[in-house]
Design a protein that fits this description.
It is built from 13 helices and 12 strands. By secondary structure, it is of the alpha/beta class. The protein folds into 2 domains: 270 residues, P-loop containing nucleotide triphosphate hydrolases (Rossmann fold); 77 residues, no CATH class. The strands form 2 sheets. It has an 8-stranded mixed sheet, sandwiched between helices. Strands 2-1-4-5 form a 4-stranded antiparallel sheet.
Length: 400
């Protein structure tokens, strides 16, 4: 694996001089370059196959399915306006997605804002109760887990939240925040909780002497490190990362992504990584699922998806990624999506993407268009590349 390039120590915020330093990435284009370096070797290979990873004496071995989601739906109830509160059409935030994650790999969930990717991550962790569908963890159905079973799952399924400040209690010290999982689960680590918390702080790049500081005394990148330390405190097996770097500067993004990858190697973690930044997704993910309006449009290994996108929506997203070559970028064609994202309260019939699909608008016959508007596309393809489109195919122009 090739880490994102960094330069010498540079403080991240006014308090950083007295705490652990955070080295910025050399350039903003570092992520795409690093992702290409990291992709060198066998195409489509998963990072959990690297030699420094060893199989654990666990219920699920490295490379086997640890998390499986089938036809998951999350609908939020709505009420019709008026004096009498009547049930209205629900918001279909997640509308029947299926995927699996192998132990030790990273599945990237990508899509534009409002596509349901964050809701999907929260629903998988039972932070939001699923409307229907099945969630299986280590082969066991945990869809309706509650009480003691849910508390046990919290030790093995954790989350890194998007907002590095809003996810931390401003009235508690950093030491108290990171120690919370130990107190809630009744776990007393060897050497004591305080010593373990300080060790975790040092591991994620924070000064353990700042154990008694409050969140507002740290910069954004340091706050996200606090959230990461809290997430890995109990050595979970699966972590959902909900856009963990979207609120950070580009240089700090590189450090946090490298930290997450190092922790994944060290603790044999499995990630579901939610993001809208295609460069970050390409760097960190082994497989990528592209979501649109609560549904998965395309799911493939990272190299396969970026080199051979088949769904028109995936092609449009990739065509919007800047290329760090001014000459190529100047000559490049963009695939433009017309119109706004439809409402999840009343999604389009048939294929939900047909109202914005350039292929539907420019290439299909009248009978083919009728099929798109009336028939929901079935998932087709093999285990390495699946797509939900009646007329999937390679783009007519180079998209990336």
């Amino acid at each position: 694996m090739t880490d994102l390039p960094t330069s010498g120590p540079t403080p991240d915020g006014p308090e950083a001089a007295a705490t652990a330093t955070e080295a910025p990435a050399s350039t903003e284009s570092a992520m795409p370059d690093a992702s290409r370096d990291r992709a060198s070797g066998a195409s489509g290979a998963h990072r959990f196959s690297r030699q420094r990873r060893k199989a654990a004496a666990d219920d699920v071995a490295l490379g086997e399915v640890i998390l499986e989601v089938t036809d998951l739906k999350k609908h939020f109830p709505m009420h019709a306006p008026g004096i009498i509160r009547r049930a209205g059409d629900p918001v279909k935030a997640v509308d029947g997605i299926s995927f699996s994650v192998r132990k030790g790999e990273t599945l990237g969930l990508v899509g534009e804002s409002g596509c349901g990717k964050s809701t999907a991550g929260r629903t998988v962790l039972q932070l939001l109760a699923p409307t229907s569908g099945t969630i299986r963890y280590q082969g066991k159905d945990v869809t309706n887990a509650d009480g003691k079973e849910l508390r046990r799952l919290r030790k093995e399924l954790q989350m890194v939240f998007q907002d590095p400040y809003g996810s931390l209690n401003p009235r508690q010290t950093v030491g108290t925040i990171i120690a919370a999982p130990f107190h809630i689960q009744g776990i007393k680590p060897e050497g004591g909780i305080k010593a373990e918390v300080q060790r975790l702080m040092e591991r994620v790049g924070l000064n353990p002497e700042h154990y008694n500081r409050f969140p507002h005394e740290f910069s954004g990148g340091q706050r996200q490190r606090i959230g990461i330390a809290r997430a890995v405190a109990l050595r979970p097996k699966v972590i959902v990362c909900d856009e963990p770097v979207s609120a950070l500067d580009v240089s700090i993004q590189a450090q946090v992504v490298n930290l997450l990858e190092d922790l994944q190697d060290e603790f044999e973690l499995t990630y579901v990584f939610v993001a809208h930044d295609l460069a970050v997704i390409r760097h960190i993910s082994d497989r990528v699922a592209v979501m649109y309006l609560g549904k998965i449009m395309e799911l493939a290994t990272r190299d396969e998806l970026y080199e051979n996108p088949l769904h028109p929506y995936t092609q449009a997203l990739l065509s919007a990624v800047p290329i760090p070559d001014p000459r190529r970028e100047h000559k490049r064609e963009r695939i433009l999506l017309k119109g706004d994202l439809p409402s999840p309260i009343n999604p389009p019939s048939g294929c939900v993407f047909h109202t914005r699909c350039p292929r539907y608008r420019e290439e299909l016959s009248e009978s083919e268009r009728t099929r798109c508007t009336t028939e929901v596309p079935a998932i087709q393809g093999d285990s390495d590349h699946t797509v939900a489109c009646h007329f999937a195919g390679p783009p007519k122009i180079e998209v990336l």
